[in-house]
């Protein structure tokens, strides 16, 4: 990660951003108005939390703190998937939207796990 000057350059942040945008533009837009303060709000917050925590961890400048914030991001990532599953079960979205979301989810999770592993290795070396 040498040479990375901003969290915006991190591949895990870019993937989290893609997930957040998909949640906002392709998932939440289909929810009924009576879910505005419930599932809509929860999914919006959890999907934003993924990229928020990656950015905050990057700004901490300490490996262990960065790892902890990335773990929180990973938890929010899983929370958002649970909310998408709930939306499908409530018949707010169809299976195809869930499948698309799962693809982005898996990509984001893999990249985030790789970043966490990198940070853990760098912490051990430093």
How would you describe this protein?
- By secondary structure, the protein is mainly alpha-helical.
- It has four helices and no strands.
- Helix 1 runs antiparallel to helix 4.
- The protein starts with 10 loop residues before the first helix and ends with a helix.
Helix content: over 70%
End-to-end distance = 14 Å
Overall domain count: 1
CATH top level? Mainly Alpha
Coarse morphology? elongated
Tally of strands: 0
Q: How would you sum up the major sheet?
A: none
Mean pLDDT score? 95
Q: What's this, in brief?
A:
By secondary structure, the protein is an all-alpha fold.
Set out the fold topology.
Blueprint: H1 11-27, H2 39-60, H3 63-89, H4 95-125
Helix pairs in contact: 1-2, 1-4, 2-3, 3-4
Task: Identify the notable features of this structure and list them briefly.
126 residues, 4 helices, mainly alpha, de novo design (two linked rop proteins)
């Amino acid at each position: 990660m040498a040479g990375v000057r901003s969290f915006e350059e991190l591949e895990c942040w870019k993937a989290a951003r893609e997930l957040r945008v998909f949640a906002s533009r392709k998932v939440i837009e289909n929810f009924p108005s009576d879910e505005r303060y419930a599932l809509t709000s929860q999914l919006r917050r959890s999907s934003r939390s993924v990229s928020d925590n990656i950015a905050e961890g990057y700004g901490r400048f300490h490996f262990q703190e960065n790892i902890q914030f990335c773990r929180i991001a990973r938890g929010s990532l899983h929370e958002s998937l649970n909310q998408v599953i709930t939306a499908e079960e409530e018949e707010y979205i169809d299976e195809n939207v869930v499948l698309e979301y799962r693809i982005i989810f898996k990509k984001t999770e893999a990249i985030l796990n790789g970043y966490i592993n990198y940070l853990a290795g760098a912490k051990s070396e430093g």
